[in-house]
Design goal:
Blueprint: E1 3-8, E2 11-15, E3 18-23, E4 30-31, E5 42-47, E6 50-55, E7 62-64, E8 67-68, E9 73-75, E10 80-83, E11 86-93, E12 101-103, E13 106-110, E14 116-118, E15 132-138, E16 142-145, H1 150-165, H2 169-188, H3 195-212, H4 216-228, H5 234-246, H6 248-262, H7 265-271, H8 274-300
Parallel strand pairs: 3-4
Antiparallel strand pairs: 1-2, 1-11, 2-16, 3-5, 5-6, 6-9, 7-8, 7-10, 10-11, 12-16, 13-14, 13-15
Helix pairs in contact: 1-2, 1-3, 2-3, 2-4, 3-4, 3-5, 4-6, 5-6, 5-8, 6-8
Length: 306
């Protein structure tokens, strides 16, 4: 028989058959100490068909995949449920995983990236900052260790965007390093990358290169698309354009290698990447023209005769 859980970052809360009450009150099955969570905020009922979430007249409501819940709503595997400031993923899991359940304690919110982490840790595992807010988020229940999947990368991308926006360059570099490492781990494990998450990470990696004036992260974007055979979205390509202009010498070879890998009619049609490929070709020609002009200037220059 299928089992169901709510995944929160790298932890999971078991949802038994019947009703699970979620809220700030200690009488709830799942207690969340969050000022935006009502004492009895929501209920998730598990039946033979899966789960149904219901808003219990909370002050700030419940959202499923970004849509406000106005009536009992059927949940499907992978649906994202927002309660207060916390985002959960509704999951259908293998019953064999039950043996790995354990209880968690209190989570603190990082003052820098606003992501929750265990109070027992000295520093935030997402951005390594040690400053904490006065807010705490408690999850009571049986929790199991999850995998480093798409949802965790997306959370890091959101934290990275905030760090870039507010000019926290040290935090931005730490977060982008962690997010790209997690993506690399997924590639090594042979997992299929979520195109939307890869695109969002690529956009923020390019933004990080701009604010730090370091092309490393944009070079990673070129390389990961080359290795996976994915055509970057047009938005990603446009974000990379300014970085390429600043560091043209560093991108001539990576850009050529990426185009050699993805410039095939099959990939172009399948991924809808015609516009992105056209823009990449323009960038390549611009780099080659610039390289040619530099070579001509060097050839024409002669050391003056004394």
């Amino acid at each position: 028989m299928a089992r169901y859980r709510l995944r929160f970052l790298l932890q999971e809360f078991d949802l038994p058959r019947g009703a699970t009450l979620i809220g700030r009150g200690l009488d709830c099955n799942l207690t969340i100490e969050d000022a935006l969570v009502s004492r009895q905020h929501a209920r998730i009922a598990i039946d033979d068909e899966g789960g149904v979430v219901e808003d219990l007249g909370s002050r700030n409501g419940v959202r499923v995949n970004g849509i406000a819940v106005v009536a009992p709503t059927r949940l499907h595997d992978g649906d994202r449920v927002r309660i207060g400031r916390q985002d959960f993923v509704f999951c259908c899991v293998d019953p064999a995983l039950q043996s790995r359940s354990h209880t968690t304690g209190v989570l603190r919110l990082c003052a820098n990236c606003r992501l929750p982490y265990s109070r027992e840790l000295v520093a935030c595992p997402n951005c390594e900052a040690t400053e904490q807010t006065d807010e705490e988020t408690t999850l009571s229940g049986n929790l199991g260790q999850g995998d480093r999947g798409t949802w965790s990368v997306q959370l890091l991308v959101e934290a990275l965007e905030r760090a870039v926006t507010f000019g926290r360059l040290g935090d931005a570099e730490r977060i982008v390093r962690q997010a790209t490492a997690m993506m690399e781990d997924a590639i090594v494990r042979g997992e299929t990358l979520d195109s939307k998450v890869l695109a969002s990470l690529a956009v923020q990696a390019a933004a990080t290169s701009l604010v730090t004036n370091d092309p490393t992260w944009s070079l990673w974007v070129f390389d990961v698309h080359r290795r996976t055979g994915k055509i970057p979205t047009l938005e990603v390509v446009e974000c990379l354009g300014e970085v390429v202009d600043r560091h043209s010498d560093a991108f001539r070879v990576p850009l050529r290698e990426l185009l050699e890998r993805v410039s095939t009619p099959v990939l172009s049609v399948r991924n809808g990447g015609a516009a992105a490929l056209s823009r990449l070709e323009q960038m390549r020609r611009k780099l080659e023209d610039h390289s040619g002009e530099s070579a001509d200037s060097a050839a024409e220059w002669r050391e003056p005769t004394l």
